[in-house]
Amino acid sequence: MTMYMLSVHHDGTADFESKTMEELQPVFEAVDRFNSELQEAGAWVFAGGLEPIEASTTVDNTKGQALVVDGPFSESKEFLGGFWVIKADDLDAALDWAQRGSAACAGKVEVRPFQGDTESL
User: Fold this and answer.
1) pLDDT tens, 10-56?
2) Considering the entire predicted model, what is its pTM?
3) CA–CA separation, 71 vs 56, rounded Å?
4) Hey, where are the domains in the chain?
5) Does CATH place domain 2-113 in 3.20.20.450?
């Protein structure tokens, strides 16, 4: 099995902070059901939702001295909202999980395999 990262991307028009808990609850419930499906299928490794992009801090130590800046790495209307790390037999299986995850979280999902041998992880 290969490990894949399913990253959830939102665009700036998805203003979650203005939504009420009542509006968000169906998404939370759908994601919980999806998480349970992953776990029951043995595909679950771990997952996490991220705080809003404004909570980001960027660290650049490429020139020998760390520069720490409040804010995201790049200014963009799109942002990473969360992710799943899963195990799947192949890309087709990972894409199937991504389709279900996208529907559950109401966001676009990027699928990327991990490098190298992930069998021992």
Assistant:
1) 876 556 667 788 988 999 999 999 999 999 999 999 999 998 888 89
2) 0.85
3) 5
4) 2-113
5) no
